[in-house]
## 1
Amino acid sequence: MRKFLILTVSVALCFAACKKDNEETPESNQSEVTPNDSTQTTDTTTVVPADSAKIAAEQLQKKLNNYRYLKTYVDRAEHPDFKFSGALDVNDFHNNRSGVRDTVTAHFDEIVAGNAMKYASVVNGGGSMNFNTVKQFVSDAQAVGLSIFGHTLAWHSQQQPGYLESLMADKEVEVPESEKVDVTDTEIEYSKLSGWNLWKADFVQDDNNVDYSITITKDGALVSNKKKANNNYMVQYQVAGGLSLKFGVKYTMTIKMKSSGTATVNYSVGSWYPDNFNGSFEVGTEMKEYTVQFEPVVEGGFVLFQTGDFVGDILIESLKITHKGSDKTIPLTAEQKRDTLIWAMDRWIAGMMEATNGYVKAWDVVNEALSGEDKDGDGIYDLQSYELNNDGDPTNVSSGVFYWQYYMGDLEYVRTAVASARKHFKGNAADLKLFVNDYNLESTWDDNGKVKSLVKWIEKWESDGVTKIDGIGTQMHISCYESASLQKDAEKHIVKMFEIMAASGKLCRISELDMGYVRGSNKWAGSIKTNQVTPAEHQKMADFYKFIIKKYFEIIPAAQQYGICQWCLTDAPSGSGWRGGEPVGIWTENYKARKATYGGFADGLAGVE
């Protein structure tokens, strides 16, 4: 039997779970070092091929190296608005790790942030928002002339459920002081005190070789700074632990303390990080009580104080935390909960639009809204939501998941996201394009039931005469099949999906394209691993990419062609949570060798027969 060259295609992109209800992102950390068309080399092999196989492999690689940059194959006269996109990790892009910024700039028109523009990447557990990474990403893209496709504004995964649920917590009723509940000991006990310098503890000295010191005395916590630190140093110390503080509850903290000089004390509950401090107060030289009110930034835990570069001693004699009786509450009504979440969503989207400042003109405004079931029997799939038990309580509660639509309603959920995006967009309103993005739109088992349902849902959302959705994004995390019948069926339903999308009149985008390979006749057998793929199977995958791209251009009218995004630029590592170890990319490790799928992409973009 003739031997074939088996390429070892180890990967550079690290993906987290991105299937169905739990999408995540590529984390690219490799790139084509010098993105040119003449200096590519082959990967190492897992077997020693026969001379003829080796020659064939070298000839194939030479052919692939002769291709131009991918975006140059798009006929801009025929497809004037088309954007060729790649997904990546924004930190790798910022730092140009292994030249990744150079590579994507050469090959793509547009880039997509893997995680950085998702809710949980910006909003912390206490509801504070930090858009610094987003702003840096926008600045980096502007510097090299790449547009950004925003992913994503409304989704049920990668949320902050604790914070969002706290907004809808029962409303506390004012009670007399005598009924307030003490959650700490009135006096701090020696055994409960601990202290340290968080960043520059005992093992680090300042520029003059003088350490910070933290001492606990029998009277309380004494923090001493022997010498003023430089601006990169701060002293943080814990003064009480073992608390059981809750989100959405207002607490009163009373501290009896004094300082050897005037000091500013920042305080927090449960969080290590200065960005999350609840507030601050000035401490003088006389022993006195200081009273502050706060809501915890996380559930917990402990009380943390920070004195920055203060020089001197601080003595804490006692600390007491109280809150109103937890049994004195009134639950919010369904309407109050809905209104609260409308406010929270609007606040989040307003912040993102402010951070991107009109540069990001296209967005997945709603991501993965549809389920694959029609429980209410109306002929279209329901939106994803919590599953309820016999008591009407959610049962499928999981980490990072929050179904906004459960509280807001199926129509209000999407309409609010669209309205907020349009209201807060900083550029020309006519330039803003909003997409609904989902997976399994090319599904064979239900004859494209999901894309049919999605089109009907768009009609529902737009029936108010105000809401406007510009486009549909199809993720297409697909497989190429050894079985001719399975492959034919997959191609048939991809064509049908494009026809349905085109008939909707909306912009059409392939949003997260990647591909595995399934051997045998079992559709659900799972993809083989990268090191198992033969040259013939690599070519079959390349032909499938070419087929998909050509059909997109043939079926989708030019005025509706927004673009195509390749989600996995290189193959997934074996430890990845997303298609781990599968041949999903178009480059090998470090982008040092193009795969056959690179040629399939180029030929598809060029319209080669």
## 2
Amino acid sequence: MYRRLLPYLRPHAWRMGATMLCNIGAAALDAFTLALLIPFLNILFDQPAISLKAGWVSDLLNATVGTLLDPADKMGSLRGVIFIVVLTMLLKNLLVWLSSSLGATLQEYVTRDLRNAVYRHLVKLPLGYFTRMKSGQILSRIINDTAETRVVLTHLMTHSLRSVALVISYLAFLIGISWKLTLISLFVVPVIVGAMQPMLRKLRKGARRRGAVHGEMTSVVQETVGGIRLVKSFGAEQYEERRFLEASGTYANSTVKLTRLAYLAPPLTEAIGTIMALFLLWIGAQEVLLHRTMSGADLIAFLMFVLRLLAPLKQLSQVPTLAQSSLASAERLFDVLDAPAETQLDKGRVATATFERSVAFERVSFAYDGEPVLQNVSFTAPKGSVVALVGPSGAGKTTLVDIIPRFYEPDRGRITLDGVDTREIRLDALRSLMGIVGQDTVLFNDTVRNNIAYGAAGKFALERIEEAARAANAHQFIAELPEGYETLLGERGTRLSGGQRQRIAIARALLHDPPILILDEATSALDTESERLVQEAIERLLAGRTVFVIAHRLSTIVHADIILVLDRGVVVERGTHTELMAKKGVYNRLYSLQFREPEVAGVGAGV
């Protein structure tokens, strides 16, 4: 997992390198400050300022402060040592500030890059991914998991580097003072690591489960906010409250369990470290009083190093604990990044697509999670024709039109465009030929202008956008908005009525001018006046295009060139309105249910 995360650090290698150098410098100066305790104590207790028993540490002290030490002027010598301590401390803290500043910048930029990479890949995933995943889970991964993952990438790495540098610096001085006591003190490290392993395994599993629970909690909030009108109309506030409280409680309980387990690490580390320090004190006292291999100042400095060593060791002992949550979040992020994008699955070689003759289905079958949705569907839609799809809910109408732009790939059979298998055409080229207007209009929290020119705002002049809006019967109400075409529509276009939203969507399709149109009939939930305006706009939209329309009101498709009646994924009837009415079959029955009398054939506007 660490190996997979490291590429996100490479673009910021200089920041990481500078942080490391600052941490190493600060650690070395911190250790040197402690070592200055030796000449200070020796002078204080009327001993030779620099003991030769401290190995290379004595040589370092001699080279740095030796010229400031005068046996005849003890107070002057102490002032010199104090001056060096202050100077070293100031320089050390400057390096600490630099490393912290660089580390914070590194942390934010790496988080940004990781978040961008996940989102960039997410929008390229096939439609099937989004039907399987809850939107709350997706949001949780982009927002929460990227924030969690940055802890192991940057925060822990920068702080841990500082602790590692301190540990190495302290150990170097400890070995210089007494290698024998240092070897004894090092025994504590494998003890701590061994004691922590079972805890770490539990933390990783628990953190991954907690991430999934967080996604469920986010889903509940999003569903409630998105469907608040329905919640209030059914008086379901308490029901939704119970759902959220249950999800929130589960998340809190999982967090408490993980936190309790994680908090075992610091006291465990401290207890083992303190016992080791007391043991070292006993052994060191023997070296000073019995064996005379150390001076009293050397022992005190050694113990000070050991005690200071406990803090970075404690921080390092927490790294595996804290990293488990980050690594679990990273695993969830790579679940997204490892999912193959449409561009990876796309085997198309034709980079430019045109449409001149027909779209044809040739024995197309499709199953979703093993359940057949379409079975052996075959028909041809000549250029300029209108193909209407009717049938009960779950008949496969939406899946059929979703296969045309290759939102899904057929399991068997093929769809051809002018005789070319659509799988041979690159996705971007194929979809450039198509426009989709759905019953549930999608608008974004952006200006009217950008919603109409969606995806290509810089491509179209305002005059072209206004022309498309006029053809969609939308220009008049747009002009009456506070900022006209620059008015922000709010999330999902909540500032507009249903009919206005539909006309914006139709203007969008008219502006992009696709030769093939997929229309999920847009008038079924509108009032009479809005329906009339939308229907007029639709008639302009359909002119000269090849249209696949999912019909909810059968009166709107009486003039369709081909009507396909689907039932459980099978085309059970096909023909014109007149032909299907004459058959007295499924279509006749559906039409009769809507209009009571099967002979009523000319009601409503045609498509």
## 3
Amino acid sequence: MKKAFFPSTKTVLLTVLFSAGINLLFALQPQPEPDPFFEATRLYELKQYGKALETFQQAIAEVPSLADRYPEVMLKIAYCYYRTGQFEEAARHFSDKKALIPEVEDYVRYFALRSTLEAGHSKEARRGLRNFNLTIRDTRLRVQSDSILAELYFEIPNLDSARFYYRRQLNYGDVNKGDILSRLVDVAVKARNKSDLEEYGFDLLRRYPFHKGSKAAYREIMARYRGRIFPGSKLSKLFKYLSVTEQFVEAENLLNVQQRLGANGEQVRWYRIRLEYDKKNYWAVSQECQSQRATFRQATYLREVDLHIARCYMRLGFTDKAVEGYDEFARRYPNDALTPEVLWVIAWLSEKKGDIDAARGYYKRLITKYPRYEFVSESRFRIGLSYYTQDSLALARNYLNTALAHDNDEIAQNRYKYWIAKTYAREGDSLEYRRQLKDLSSNPFDDYYSLKGFLLTSDGREVNQFVDSLLWEMHHKETSYLPQYLDRFQKPLLVHDIFGERFAQRELNHLASAMDSPEWELLYALGEVNEHMQNFGRAFRIYNRLFLRNFSRKDWREWLFLVKHLYPLYFTGEVNQYAREWNLTPASIWAVIKKESAFEPNVMSYANAYGLMQIIPPTANRLTESLGLAMEDVRQLYDPNFNIRLGSYYLSELLKRYDGNLYYALAAYNAGEHRVDRWSKVLNTDDDDFFMENIEFEQTRTYVRGVMKFYWMYHLLIHPYQVPENQLVNFPHKVARDPWFREPEAFE
């Protein structure tokens, strides 16, 4: 028999780190374990639990004392029983004192109870889970425990207890609250609790309109109110739900029924008009608003009518009438929260119809009357750009320099400087143009303008040196602070080794939330652990937080070691696969993912956009139909492979639509093709900067700037030696307009 090796506590922890895939900077040279032990561990990591169980048992048969000295083995054996459906054996092994590791006691008890439940002893499991919640306070498993108890009580049924445990889950951060609200609706229906049905049903419709349980909640609410009038606030919520989900026929039926029952006449009449607006029948809406305005008495609906008259004219392309309508709104409602934005829109529309003097007047009025409005800085810039548009370049410079002196925002200042430089370029003064951009680009990482300024003014040697510095830090100079903080991560690493990634991520998320102001090295180590456990969204947010808190104001050379974490190549397999399939550069896909979701797969925006590339359900349905795929549940968009497949295909289609121009494609990705088609006809420019600055929506302008910066950075990192030496001045434009570049085989 081979001599047994009993690892020390430190060696055990380092073995855990190794199995989690974490590369430490110090070498370990443990004595070799018995061969079955290593084979069992390998099988366990591959999730081949049946074979792992047999091999662990063989290892213990050869070295019986292994079970006493190495409790992780006993826990893994218990978990193998659990995963292979041998629940009675699993419960017995989890309850064995040999399997008890104090750091993960809560997991041992929890899985003992889960095994008991799966073995069919539900009453005993309920009693044990209640006791678990009472006796183990600081555990990440409370959400699972509450979820199981809620389901168990719902099945009995003990609806009061089920309601209690479902409600408690709403307080947790890492749960699917749409699912919980849907379940609370089920409880309310079963208990015939009308108030709960309304509370949770309306909340589900408002927050998760595309959830699969929302339609059922809507039907239940309608059934309870059959033959009755909805109060105004509830009718509003129902109408918004139907409108957002484009259930226009059902919305019309709802309004018809409420009108017959004698509901608020003005509200119903307004919703009929609004329904036509949502259906994009803008001409009919404009006519109805004008013909019915005199019949409205409530200020709420009068305001909506006045606003939609202007909006419809704008949608229909009647710019003069839209300006008149918005100007009338601003005059009637000077204290309305929307009035500064209305003045902003009037100024834009005035520019659109070529009345630049009027536009400047509205911008100045906005700056003077609403100095705290968020678009004041933007208004200053627009005035400067309006002079540039008219070729009044000296006036443009003077105004932009004045704005530069009044605006303390760094991005706004870089923007002013960039366009001051462009005035010199337009005058043919290339020397001053380059001098201005050189001054702007001293820190190329700052934003779109500083990076583009650097690329436009650097020769090939300078760019290659810059990229070489980045690559050296990324690939040759490893930075790790994990070893010195190893003890802080003992529990999540043990959990990862024994129970897997999903549970370990919860431990790490809790650890991150508890670090209010840690030393940055500890935060970096936390990022390392998350990254190696493939908790990519959390890892990126940690590194980004570290950068913003500790390095954003420092020279970029001091934080080169962070670049590979701020521009990570996560989801490499999926990105490369679909980049090849749709003939895109991976750089464009990574740039969109970084901007849209910060690499977090399970995220939903306020606009009901899902997943890594933030795709809304209607767009997803259209894309899946084009690709011959099925999407039965919007939660499929949380799957990285599915999401990247759809998102990258959509991006490739947009690039084809706009002849490879990434500025246009990104604007359409964010704001919709119909808007970009309209903007491109109005602008008719080959200057991508000018197109971007004239995008109608601030959110879309910011989006395009951000993604283009990320795209150039990724392009430089992926193609460090493909920067065109003799055409540097066109480099940003060149890569932006060449999205079908074939990736080198080494990168594939």
